[in-house]
């Protein structure tokens, strides 16, 4: 990655490295939310017919690594949210495995890759930058929902700004 | 703004214009959520002791225009969430007024402004890019919470990807 180890390009709105760190900081906060959730409620608690938070986390896991792999390698990936995960520990282990894999995939992205077009998961049209922003925004959206679940359960979520 | 009306800089992770459009698309979705909320519930419905969505919207209004004004002009702004707004119509009117004001403020930002440091509202340290991303992320976060409120009220929120 061009910016790595070098000084920041002062002309850039955001550098690849900054965008990656931004995403990883959000993933760190989401991990805290998974960890604070009581296991039973993580897999079963719901409001208004919405999915339990574990199912939203499975979606985030189904997107992050396969999605970035597709972006980095150009090889088509399937969107498979039906992960065989039944415990909080397994969910956290998958989360951490993803965190270990993402940096190596991100390294493959050159600075001029972000404006290129992509059909993510064979169905979502966009540019690489719009796709990555979608991944991040979608995580913030569902984690915001998990904050309501936690409050409804009488649990204080981690501060949103603490990443 | 340098990118306006010109071809896209293929080397940019994201251009100022793209970032602004991204934010405005999110603001458009949030407007749809405000509009779909029943007025009484907008100001009074709550889960787990959280604020009604109208109060979260007041926070977003207190941030967007004053925050961008401070970024664009360098003149200190106060964070004042105690807006005298008691109806959905007033809230939507304030939202639309902000939407009209933001483009002229954004125009003042040159491409090399984003990496500069700022103390937003006299208290939040960061760069201009980290501050703007915080504004956007904070809106997604609270709007995600409003989706749970709507579902709990038996109302289908607008699709997250429809912006």
Automatic annotation (TrEMBL), chains A, B:
Keyword annotations for this protein, in alphabetical order, are: Metal-binding
Identify the domain of life.
Bacteria
InterPro entries given for it? DinB (IPR007837), DinB/YfiT-like (IPR034660)
Q: Which GO terms describe its molecular function?
A: metal ion binding
Keyword Metal-binding carried by entry: yes
**Pfam families the UniProt entry points to:** DinB
List residues binding a divalent metal cation.
142
Q: Which family does it belong to?
A: Belongs to the DinB family.
What name does UniProt use for this protein? Damage-inducible protein DinB
